[in-house]
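Suppose you are handed a protein chain with no further information: no name, no annotation, nothing but its sequence. What can you learn? This example shows the usual starting point.
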Amino acid sequence: MLFTDLGLSEPILRAIAEEGYTSPTPIQAKSIPAVLKGGDLLAAAQTGTGKTAGFTLPILQCLSTTKASSGKRVLRVLILTPTRELAAQVQESVLTYGKYTGLKSAVIFGGVGANPQIKAIAAGLDILVATPGRLLDLLSQKCVSLDAIEILVLDEADRMLDMGFLRDIKKILAVLPKQRQNLLFSATFSTEIKALADGLLNSPALIEVARSNSANEAIAQLIHPVDRTKKHPLLAHLIKSNNWKQVLVFTRTKHGANKLVTQLEKDGITCMAIHGNKSQTARTKALADFKAGKLTALVATDIAARGIDIDQLPHVVNYDLPNVSEDYVHRIGRTGRAGSNGVAVSLVCVDEHQMLRDIEKLIKQKLPQEVIAGFEPDPHAVAQPIQLRSQQHQQSRKLRPQGASGAPAKKAPAKRGSPPKRSFNH
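A reasonable first move is to predict its three-dimensional structure. Written in structure tokens, the prediction is:
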């Protein structure tokens, strides 16, 4: 099948051709006709399958061939994403494929000043890409109107629920027109996603491409057993001895990411970290430098990396195995995209043996192991408990009383107020 078979207009096909694409991915081949029919859609597709173009292309087609009922330019499409990086990626897709349509779009998210975003909305838009927190902020200031929305997209809905955005989503749904087309994209069809879909979608078309817990066959997966104290030297050795030019490295914590960057820089390896405590400017620069080849390594935590889309990324390294087995599939899915091959390496110490067993059970395969000479693990090493992120968060809340605003209280209150808002995705 070719893009020319899908009923897309010449301006959109021209933009697709300029990007070098002729044939749609499976999710695109299924979702584009479904969206063009005008009905609701529930689609399961992981990052890296081409799902972003799967909804931006038909949306651009719909808007460019129909006019708003008022005859004026009004906001007709709202695309909600869980993270700033994913929002920026979706906006990039809209701009790339919509450049010959005359349609206007903007992206809004927290971590940066709101004034330029408010001005962009006031100038008139057809499509708005947003994270929930910033959208609610601008709605409360009456800086944006959703009265004419015809299409709503919830992208990576499973991650939105994981990150606690259900209440925000419900607030946004409450101000949207009742008559609209709803498109929900998720990596999995979990019980929570099905519940959200039941309340949101009207007789949706169902699309699922590849099992949600399966790893891409184009990715070579390898385990390097190593002692916890030798992980950093082993990573530096792998990068230098193999002459890796671009590697995405995952750590379990923000502190771990920062520490690893400092260590790798001492080894002469150019790298930066990307996580929730970094400013949006720093994160945008790190990602841009990495894509441009100015950095050898980008060190990321799971939430910060969601939505990172890098064409032909050759190497992903799990410096720490993830707490949640499903995140392993999401992590390694950053490589082996669009028909290219990729390598996913995991550095596993004795503390992580149970995590590895859980991952292998999930993906239903035993991962090959290779011990690197000079980095042989101590056979008598004893496992130590891993401090999980949720435990760290709970512990910090016990140690630091919080007021209703989430700021540290000057005096411990008699009753603890609301937990702090997570500003990362506002």
